[in-house]
Amino acid sequence: MKQSSGHFNLTARVLHWLMAALILAMLFIGVTMVASLHWRPALIDLHRPLGIAILMLAVVRLINRLRHRPPPLPADLPVWQVAAAHASHWLLYGLMFAMPLVGWAMLSAGGYPVQMWKGVALPHILPHSPALYAALRSAHSLLAYVLFATVVMHLCAALFHAWVRRDGVFSAMARGPGR
């Protein structure tokens, strides 16, 4: 594992902001899919490949994270905040994997294709089972609520570091070294 320079590496920063945009888009797409019958088919066609893209980017992001040590948190940060920061980051990683995998499994159990684009569908990862589909659909919804809450808390913590503490935690992800 490479030592940190006080900032996240360029790959980490690009993946962080790209995935932040994709995850926020997915949350809004998911809510709109449920609320709108008119937009539902088009949004489902967008939701499925975006979910798989997030899964693939999460793999790249985790590999990068394991190879490059993140910058240290401020030494004066209370122990509970350090623990919360580490737990929330690993929870976000877990959700970036769990949400697309549960969605893919749910569609497989429902007998639906995971259409990436015209003519290209992913293979089923579970056998057809209406009961399993229903359970996975509930799990996918529950995980979406957990993801939303975790993203809101992550954003609040980032803004706290940027605007209140002004301790460099936010800038470590927002800007590269030398700025």
From TrEMBL:
Q: Please list the residue ranges annotated as the Cytochrome b561 bacterial/Ni-hydrogenase domain.
A: 7-176
Q: Which residues cross the membrane?
A: 14-37, 49-67, 87-107, 142-164
Keyword vocabulary terms for this entry: Cell membrane, Electron transport, Heme, Iron, Membrane, Metal-binding, Transmembrane, Transmembrane helix, Transport
InterPro entries with a match to the protein in the record: Cyt_b561_bac/Ni-Hgenase, Cytochrome_b561_oxidase, Di-haem_cyt_TM
Query: Which cofactor names does the annotation list?
Result: heme b
Q: Entry's SUPFAM superfamilies?
A: Transmembrane di-heme cytochromes
> What is the annotated localization of this protein?
Cell membrane
Which topology term describes how it sits in the membrane? Multi-pass membrane protein
Superkingdom per UniProt: Bacteria
- Establish whether keyword Repeat is in the entry: no
> What's the family?
Belongs to the cytochrome b561 family.
What name appears for this protein in its UniProt entry? Answer: Cytochrome b
